[in-house]
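Below is how a single chain appears once it has passed through the pipeline. First comes the sequence as given, then the structure the pipeline wrote out for it. We keep one example in the README because the format questions we get most often are answered faster by looking than by reading.
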Amino acid sequence: MLRRILKDAHVGQHSEGDAIGALIQKLPATYQPTVRPLISRQAELFGLPESAFRSRDEKVNSNFGPEAEEIDAEVFTFGSCLIALTLYENSRTRRRRNENGEMVITEGKHRSITVAYVVPSVEGPDFSEFETFLAEVWPEIELSERQDPLRRIREIENGNVNTTEIPSPEDLQSAEVLSDKSARKLAIAIKSANGLLTGHAAKQIPPADRPRIDELIEKLISLGLVDTEVVVICRETSAQINRLSSSESFEVLDEVGLKCACGRNLSAEKLEKALSITDFGRLMLDGNRWLSILVLQNLLSLGVPIENIRMEQIYSGEEVDCIAEIYGRIVLFELKDKEFARGNAYSFGAKIGIFQPDFSVVVTTERVGRDAKDHFLARSAGTRKRTFYGRGRDSEAVIFIEGLDNLGTGLEAVISEVTKSALAARLRNALSFANPQPLALLAAWSGMGGVNGPEE
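Resulting structure:
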């Protein structure tokens, strides 16, 4: 996967001359610059001084304000990482009153630095060495990591209270067990039947998994998803008479004279062990909360802050399974514990139209139907391409993650797509310093004269 770490700092001044050049001289060979070598080679090919490549035809807007100008940049390779360093400068006008009460206008330069680390993993390398060398060129620098402000997601929630919380260990363990299809089918069968005799439990799961039935039952019970009880069955009618938490209750019931309709004491009737769903189990199954927990935990593990994620919320009258703001981009998720069919595609397409996300993702425990894929293909003709993870083939506009085995890999790919989108403009601006600016190049060329190139 690909992720971004963005740091910035205000500095008193940039060092005299080529500040980035001074940094390059200090860095060990493990940090390889890319912009400076490209400038040198192009200057050699054009027969122009390198200064012709440093002039800018126009200012480039930055995150430090509309007046901040990018004055220099470099992109370093560091192992499998990229480091994009950009220098900014802008003029600031300040108004203040002097000791005589007169308004005094002063102008000063405001300088700043941003460092974007592009890391191909959740756990990136230690960049403290690089930042130590930065401090040698800019002694007063104090880099701090920048978190993108939550703007778009706050507009969507429009004051609604965010109820998303970090999953508890019990929630995570239960979600992991329910991610097992057979365990989930068994729990759903118990819930749907309002109780299930133990002897009928194996019939609820695929034949290949029936030898695991005792193991699955034990897991569901140990996590509090399922409970056991004793069912009283009339020996004459075979009807279920009552349910008790344990067989120890029968002595008390016999003493008070409680009998079956056939006249026998309850303890004399047929007793069978049964399984019932607990309130916690019902909570985990209703709305596929277990799947929401798995997706949430994966996003947290991939570095998305909990503050940036909204789970199971209702916005604009629409129920949203998951929506996240990552690097300023909105990612909308639809979660399904079944095949994602055409009807689901219509519903999700409506949400896409309402929330206008930058990325749309379908997570399904099964597969995405061909008709649903065709719906999105037709709907998004001419839009940017997206990829399937799991079964399927390339499609447009929506990322499909099919099957829980592909959940981790698919979400990593989603984060990578968002990261590339967020970093593209920053890297484009930095790398543009390696390109000859047309006006500057033509001015330098015309000033030197000669069909064989400029004179020295």
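The chain is about 35% helix and 25% strand.

See the next section for the split statistics.
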